[in-house]
Amino acid sequence: MSSKKSTSADPAEATYKPDKKFAKKARISSLSEYQELYQESIRKPQKFWAKEAKELQWRKPWSKTLKWDPPFAEWFTGGELNVCENCVDRHAEGPRKNKAAIIWEGEPGDKRVITYAQLKREVSKFANVLEKNGIEAGDRVLIYMPMVPEAAIAMLACARIGAVHNVVFGGFAADAILDRLEDSGAVAVITADGGWRRGKVIPLKPTVDDALQRFSKVRRVIVLNRCGNDISMQEGRDVWWADEMENVSAQHTAKGFDSEHPLFILYTSGSTGKPKGILHTSGGYLTGTYATCKYIFDMRDDDVYWCTADVGWITGHSYIVYGPLANGVTQVMYEGAPNFPDFGRFWQMIEEYGVTIFYTAPTAIRAFIKAGDAFPAKYDLSSLRLLGSVGEPINPEAWLWYHEHIGGGKCPIVDTWWQTETGAIMISPLPGATPCKPGTATLPFFGIDAAVLDDAGNECKPNEDGRLVIRQPWPSMTRTLYKDKARFKKVYWSDYPGFYTAGDGARRDKKGNFWIIGRLDDVLNVSGHRLGTAEIESALVAHHAVAEAAVVGRPDDLKGQAVAAFVTLKTGYEESPELVVELRNHVAHVIGAIAKPDDVYCTAALPKTRSGKIMRRLLKELVSTGKISGNITTLEDSEVITSLQKKITGGS
Ligand code: WT7
Predict the structure, then answer these.
(1) Residue from 530, 531, 561 to probe ligand 1 pocket by mutation (most atoms less than 8 Å from CB)
(2) Residues in CB range of 385: below 8 A, 6 or more apart
(3) What number of other Cβ atoms are within 10 A of residue 228's Cβ?
(4) 333 CB less than 6 Å from ligand 1?
(5) Cα of 377 to ligand 1 centre, how many Å?
(6) Crossing angle for the helix pair 174-184 and 205-212, to the nearest 10 degrees
(7) Among 389, 300, 332, 342, which residue's Cα sits nearest to residue 96?
(8) Residue 620 dihedral angles phi and psi, to the nearest 5°
(9) Which intervals hold domain Acetyl-coenzyme A synthetase N-terminal (predicted)?
(10) What is the pLDDT of residues 372-406, one digit of tens each?
């Protein structure tokens, strides 16, 4: 029962039609059914979304589906719900009571299964802990945790009491935590002593302590004992998770919050040095994540779903915590690295738990390809029925390997395009309906009016490159940048009035499939993570030896993009291999290991225009191709390029 391939000699060019058996059982079973419903959903988006929202549990019905005052949207105005109740209580009180909600594995091999009823007890207890510690609705709470069930429990407990969580990825450094504490005005932090990664303990609490030395508004730090590593606790401020949980009730009465009550802030990189606080609210966000899980991942009661993201990213928020739990599915959660103890870890877990739906990133797939086919071949992966990909365009080689070696040639692959800002998947195949082709995220989800426009605002012709936009509001869209409406307007809504600009270049083929080309701004996509070049530059310039810095991306086989940095040194400093190492570590120390430059080039000067602007475009071309093809007449000093070229290509 292989998914049907059209007759093209080149597998990368072939079209992969949904398997008939899959299609028959799927919610949407054919391309024509999708097209019909899609057209209807674009004509009447509010009708489509209201129908989906009605499948959630509301404390008070909404009076207006959408209030649209571009670019500010309100969905399900007047409605009240409790997001946590929808993800937990709703299942814990029905036939799913003793169903596994989370099957968790720690990196060292420890295992836990948490049923929906148990999840309700844990979340209720932790909600009581938060309240006992004076945390109230609207307060901001920073969460800095490893991938343990308590991370999800903390998020859900915040949602339950109406506190706004801001999860910070555990790989970020103290300065990144500090920025987020300051911008969000957090009053509490939830963290752990550490987490396991590649057989080692990564300490977390000491990093929080470092940030808190420079920020005094946090009243309470709740610390989970995960690894038993040595940490210090500040009397009067820091308390242990387990101690707090001991003396609280397992009953917590949830109340309803306004549909537009803020649910969380998640920071993401933009083209300036300051990360953007993406704000998501309750009713619309939950509707979007719920509906996309249902249609795109085809979630069913007997599924075992596994998304390998970290809760520190939007994928973890929408497709580990809120979407899957709102659907009452059983999911696998894993703490550590994909290659610990070896590259068979994921496949061994898929076999052990009988995972049916698996969602990961192209960068991981490329690392698996490199590790060799023998790893997946050792395990029985026949439980899988659907695969997903997210984070960057999936190259045909990775797509084909995923399809064959993981999906056994029979599983549809949903290549899902979306962003932190969009909250939920926007463009993706529907697994029982959409013919797939390696490299394209195919067609927009219901209610999503996506288009590719040229500079003048006209729709591009087939195969013509342009800018990806969304022309109508959708429920899970970010409402604003936290405390910065002006920047929100400017970044996303000023290219084409009334339309959301994603910041991605794209083209559509004759069949209407969307091919995402990549970011159009100064943002890199390194292993599916968004990194602002400006942030890395300001980290470099903060080093005492650096006068000026320019950061660009260059293609990388594994990571998609690698970070290349160019620096000029202050007088008195000389280029040396030690300094290069120091600068790389410095960036890791300021932002986090993910931002560590792969290459650092010291140069006498940076290429600039006559008006003094750094020409990153040239640097990018240089690191990508080793030469400059275009016009450099606007350069102030063309010698700069010649000497850099020698340096990069190693020529003399
Ligand atoms: C950017 C958003 C949303 C989850 C993870 C990243 C790129 C994401 C795809 C895809 C091509 C993709 C885009 C987008 N991107 N998914 N399937 N195909 N590109 O979230 O950090 O907000 O980054 O990731 O460039 O703008 P994010």
Answers:
(1) 530
(2) 22, 356, 357, 410, 411
(3) 9
(4) no
(5) 30
(6) 60
(7) 300
(8) -65, -45
(9) 34-87
(10) 999 999 999 999 999 999 999 999 999 999 999 99
